[in-house]
């Protein structure tokens, strides 16, 4: 079996997080091999809506990441081709009643202190922003920093822009982690042979727990299923990312039960995307009629004009979440040379650049943009016996 | 008829073509309560598509082979207890929980069939029909390969031209070239010619010699051989030239077809340079065989099998059941094989379902091969015709060289106007290795038809000359559904059982 | 040899009626779809595409390809190969997605 020329680092996963890790590592002068058992954007990235949000995040470490990522995405939008469809269109959170409005106001005030720009929109001004919104809403908050990209292109164009320092090995599944005498990383084994590097970055998304297990460490990444409904092509009917106030509570919830909240947004290509559902059902791809009903009811509730518009397709995605809803980013103290960049739940597209930047800085001993202690990969204690309950094997 | 409004039917049959009709009347004659759903207002499916009564066709059989087999089924349907629900477009079937550990039909488990109604499914009231067993007889749609100019008005599907003629008594032009690959082309050419069109050529990409490699399948299927002879004689009578080993490699015209260029192909379907010649025409009817329409089944996890022509069909057991218990399929869904095979499979499925729901075996002694009696006879006929269908299918599999006739500017995806150049860029530059990623990066297959028209081409281009993966035929919505309809999917409001 | 499809099947249709296509009168037979009526009048295109503005009409003929989308009596995205023609129907060439009136 031929052993190929070693790289400085191997990134496992060609989703948007892996692509961003490869991009920033290459920018820092490192040679990178990206290996994925499928295609570029073949996992959760390809099922995402491409949200770059600050509006749905409580003040705290994830919001800090999101604010940094927001700036990086603006920079990337200038560098990457227009295919990534970067749009700084802003998010609009709406409330149906006064109590909802009060909750939004409190939430926004706390976010403002953390550096988020917010703007209260009274009920009678909502239609200036979104002419098709249902009548009678109490009001909302506008978040001008919220943006959107086309996720699959974001991943593909980041890898493409990374240039010759990045080698892509697609359709090659990692079956083992190679370690040296002291337990340090030496590379990975794939179905096609061995790939050598002193560092391995786990950017395997929802399957990051399984990859960690190959390296002998515990990282309880679990799938949280969401469906997206996609309509027929439309002109610009919805200008912002518009969602109902209960969305924030659902995002932060740890419940396994089905939660849905109305999230509606247009795309440059024409179709309107409708979310969002959250449920913990493993990797089950079976269509749920109840989810579709709730998503459609939520969307037509916010935008009655969508009632006669047809849904053309729907697909599930599996958000990679960790029990405390924060990602794992940075070196794993348990295995020298192993770094993690996974578990971003529904925020992976948005948080990809800052994640990639942190990983690149870790690899080059550069200055970190923020304290990454909240994201340390060894913060979860392994249950006894070792294998994590419910951790699905990578299919 | 079922006993009460909430009582499920014993059987819902989706599709009222040859297979669905045979399955529905057989099951009803054996005592089951049956609902037969079809998107059109008539029965007969694509093969026996015929004019609406108001068109007053005295001789509809003039456009059909073996019309008596259909009129027979239609008579049995009229005399049966089958509830025939026309204008029902099924967009999803869902298994609803029953007792675990036993096959559907033997327990309280039911299927829910979700449909929208109206001529093109735009009426808003959702319909939900429940049944203890389900028979999918959803037929096939036509496979297309792109070529320069194929989006010009006047280029129509070969099956499409046939369908418009059979139901609407219209032609797309006066001088129609028929092209592509597959046995349907001869039937289409002879109908068009009989209906008054001039057909200057039938352009067939395969070399017909390949049939000769399996003479046994031909000899044992005299009905198919006779059908081919009938078409052959009709073509001779209408002075239609058949050009094997050739393809239309370009369509000429600005806003509609004015002529086509026909080129010779080598054995791999690569056009031979310098062989192009122009044929004047005002329409082109084109198709490359048929693709089983199986998305209702793949959505609930039914296993598929790769067919010799590069399409996917449902994997079925000896009695037409899919890998999902309680869900049967018949006709083209298991592989394209024609109306007679579809009828045979439909009857076999109807008998198997009746036996299952009655707690009996359809096949009293599986140890004795296909078994005696009617079921044994049906199985023997089915197996013989399936073998023939596989030979035909293999003969018309697209050769690996066809993408050579694409130009970078040729639209591959008609809906989203995605060119061959963009698909190739996604594959060579952006890391797309399969049709799904090509779709994500180019939108090819994301439009209204959900990849039905471009799926084969995208799979071939994604394979970069290797063996393409058959298109996955996964479409969670078999037809687009208005959001208001989805929002109204409240169970109580939508029970439509009779 | 039959001269027309109607001759071939010995059609004795109910009386024809008029529909309009972009304001022009077109004769339809009862039982025909909108697409069949338009083909009968020699019209092969009744939609322009979203990106290229290219003309399109019926292609697959059986409701699968959605190329035949037309605006029928003001309602966009009707599959002309499935929708029956009714007396007085106003068919208009559909431009792109057909939903311009929704644009904000």
Descriptive account of the structure:
The complex is a heterotrimer of chains A (395), B (498) and C (104). With 395 residues, chain A is α/β, with parallel strands linked by helices. Chain A folds into two domains: 160 residues, FAD/NAD(P)-binding domain, CATH 3.50.50; 154 residues, D-Amino Acid Oxidase, Chain A, domain 2, CATH 3.30.9.10. Chain A is built from nine helices and 19 strands. Chain B is an alpha/beta fold and 498 residues long. In chain B, 30% of the residues lie in helices and 21% in strands. In chain B, the strands form six sheets. In chain B, strands 1, 2, 3, 4, 5, 6 and 19 form a seven-stranded mixed β-sheet that branches. In chain B, strands 8-15-9-10-11 form a five-stranded parallel β-sheet. In chain B, strands 12-13-14 form a three-stranded antiparallel β-sheet, with no helix packed on it. In chain B, strand 17 and strand 18 form a beta hairpin. Chain B is globular and about 65 Å long. In chain C, strand 3 and strand 4 form a beta hairpin. Chain C has one domain: Ubiquitin-like (UB roll). The model of chain C has no long low-confidence stretch (mean pLDDT 96). Chains in contact: A-B, A-C, B-C. At the B-C interface, strand 8 and helix 3 of B face helix 1, helix 2, strand 4 and strand 6 of C. Strand 17 of chain A pairs antiparallel with strand 22 of chain B, so a sheet runs across the interface.
What descriptive keywords fit this protein?
heterotrimer, B: 498 residues, alpha/beta, FAD/NAD(P)-binding domain, 2 domains, 14 helices, 22 strands, 30% helix, 21% strand, globular, disordered N terminus, C: 104 residues, mainly beta, Ubiquitin-like (UB roll), three-stranded mixed sheet, 8 strands
